[in-house]
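Slides due. Your pick:
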Amino acid sequence: MPQHDPFVGKPLTVLSGIRSSISRCYRAARAETLLAANRIARGNLQEGQATEKEVQSLNKIPGLEENPLAIDFLCWRRSTLWGAMILGGLAVAIEILSFQTAAAALRGVNPGDSTVDASVEIEQLISSIGHRNLWVFDAMQAAFILASLCTVVFMAVAARRWTDARQSRKWARIAWLTAFGVPILLGVLPGTYLMDFSHLEPLEAAGMEQTIRLLFAVNVLAIGFPKVLSLFPGIVRSAVIVKTLIPESGMPGWIVVIVAPLYSFFLLIAVGVVSQIRADLAFLLSVACFLGAQVAYLIRSDQLVRVQSRDTISAIVKSIRLPVNVLNAFGVVLGVVFFSRLEGFTFVDAIQIVLSVVGNLLLMSVVSSDLIVAMVNRAHRELADLGQSEHAVTLGEKCEALSRAGLTSDRVRSSEK
């Protein structure tokens, strides 16, 4: 009687199990990505967002079962952090894959000219700069990439600990400080202080040092500008989201009123600087789209600063989000076109910049929304305490005096209506 081999068919069973596990992971990741994209695009906490699985994860936190809006806020934070982590991770991956040493970048300046004279000139330039000095360039570039990688890790930790609000806030702030603080610190550090030009004549050393300082400045600007570009829209976006969380407060609306014009002026300054270097219609149209998005916020700002009901604020935010999302999408596409046309930039480089900007914007929206919620809570408590103290009378007298002098008039009238 033939013996049954226990190993017959086992490889097929293992492969089938692996295939099934990969399929489950793919479906889960796809569902999570779609959920995160939907929450980020809507930015409206008045619409039910928490899934049954997320509600179960939050059941251990006392008091949350009576406040579904707080649950939706935590779920929005989780999805936004995951979205920021994914976009930031893709941006870092592109940076790592496209990383070149300074020497290799110089040798590839003119790849179309393979003559001996061109190669000799490039090698002479590398020798003039000094291999040790080029390593300083490489070290600083590696530090920027490492900071971006650490930011992604910290965002993952913040998203992973989303049920613990205190821990999640802490790690999100650490991620933000890493993303924005490290480039600023490296930019403040004069890179030429770490270099040695003693192998050159004094006049040549002075000229080379001045040139390298200019290159450092351009490099810091190229790395820091996308991060700064995400600050203002991240704050505006978070203020609108908090307004849907706490429609009874006018503070989020006033933040929009203050920050949106500042962002607009910042964009106009950027237009002035870039236009002097390279005038491009795609860039101008891109900035015009981003400015239009801020105007869309300002047009409805009088409604954002007022006390609103849940249904009303939901309708207001819906009417704002559509033009804002469309204008920002067109702005991003035109920005990619502009960067793709720049000499030394490729389409992949443009995509990397977009991923970095959007990822930092999402991270900024989470960090600033946490701060705005804390500010609203603090203001509410102080207002309650003020109503029971003698300072309420003096405050009222001061406001009345300022009003009679015409110093409290504004175009956005919330409390007077």
Notes: The chain has two domains: 47-224, 230-417.
